[in-house]
Specification:
Oligomer: single chain
Radius of gyration: 35 Å
Strand order of the largest sheet: 1-5-10-9-6-11
Number of helices: 12
Helix content: 25-40%
Structural class: alpha+beta
Largest sheet: 6 strands, mixed
């Protein structure tokens, strides 16, 4: 026999646990389908242990035996259950405030006996003061054994009787599994509803999901975004250039020096750098040019220099993906319009395909 822990252990909410790498399980899961309400062993790798004292330190001893030990004759309440540690097993205080390794072999089958003294007195006591001991104490014993159903060996205290009775009203493991599946189903249903609401009331296709600003534009006019998705690439490219130009006109930028030339080069289909700055000098290497804004812009910003906003809509119009170009320029292009519906209405008039 090895005593692997002996001394004060802190409990809270009348709980202390044995854990071995398993995910956290609540009281209902650990006691599901059991007869005893002191040692919850229904979740693999976990023991959910109940004490009389609500909060404070109780005397706790943990022993590991080679064979089944005799029952402590003076123990008031005794229960047994099967246990198989998944990884290294530890006795753990509520909230992780203390832990003790238990020297059990992961994957091996054990029988565990949980014996209690003074549960009623512990339940009635307040938290012990510094240096005081709780009136209840506990012994946890492990030994190698084949798995067998949990059972109540001895019942004396009113507190143990109450706990035993309470857990028999818990859902069975099958009922608990059904409840968890239903909860997961409702959560997924809620998630999808919220996701659809963010997209203007309808879930997006996989293609739209991956287009930047598609969600933001869908929240304003989902039918227009759906129409963009159905439209051919050549028309989408024309829509993108038309929208970029229309935004610049609405902002009055088409009257500024240099901007008409930028829009003309964009309409001609020049590459982005050439559209913004004109043909490159021969001395520049013929390599792709990446334009950066520091933080990637998310909308038109009237506080910026006009060329910065022109750069934003023209850059969007030059995106490789025509759908991304149409959506991006429409999103940026809303900036100079006092009423968003004006741009949407003009788009539908200019391009009956998206009506």
């Amino acid at each position: 026999m090895r005593t692997v822990m002996s001394g004060p252990a802190r409990v809270a909410y009348s709980q202390i646990y044995v854990e071995s790498g398993a995910d956290w399980a609540d009281l209902g899961e650990c006691f599901a389908g059991q007869q005893n309400g002191l040692c919850g062993a229904a979740v693999p790798g976990t023991l959910f242990l109940i004490t009389g004292l609500h909060t404070g330190e109780v005397q706790f001893t943990v022993e590991v035996h080679d064979t089944m030990p005799t029952v402590e004759y003076d123990a008031e309440d005794v229960v047994e259950a099967p246990y198989r540690p998944i990884e290294t097993a530890q006795l753990v205080s509520w909230g992780g405030s203390g832990s003790w390794a238990l020297d059990l072999d992961p994957g091996a089958d054990y029988r565990v006996r949980y014996s209690a003294w003074g549960m009623d007195a512990g339940h009635q006591a307040g938290p012990p003061m510094d240096g005081e001991s709780s009136p209840d104490r506990y012994l946890l014993q492990f030994w190698p054994a084949r798995s067998a159903p949990e059972r109540i060996v001895k019942q004396t205290s009113r507190q143990a009787a109450y706990k035993h009775k309470a857990v028999r009203e818990f859902p069975t493991p099958a009922e608990l599994a059904d409840q968890k599946r239903e909860k997961a189903r409702r959560a997924e249903e809620q998630r999808l509803a919220e996701h659809a609401a963010a997209w203007g009331g309808t879930l997006p296709t996989e293609r739209l999901e991956n287009v930047r600003f598609a969600r933001e534009l869908s929240a304003l006019d989902r039918p227009l975004v759906d129409a963009f998705e159905r439209t051919g690439p050549e028309t989408l490219r024309v829509i993108a250039r038309w929208t970029a130009r229309r935004a610049c006109v609405e902002a009055g930028f088409d009257q500024l020096e240099g901007i008409p030339d930028v829009l003309a080069r964009m309409d001609r289909g020049d590459a982005l750098y050439d559209a913004l700055y004109g043909p490159r000098p021969p001395r520049l290497p013929d390599a792709p040019v990446t334009l950066g804004f520091g933080i990637l812009p998310t909308s038109w910003d009237s506080r910026l220099d006009p060329f910065e906003n022109v750069t934003r809509v023209v850059t969007a119009a030059c995106y490789d993906d025509p759908l991304r170009a149409a959506i991006g320029t429409t999103w940026f292009g809303l900036g100079p319009f006092e009423h968003h519906d004006q741009l949407f209405a003009e788009l539908r008039v200019a391009f009956p395909e998206v009506s």
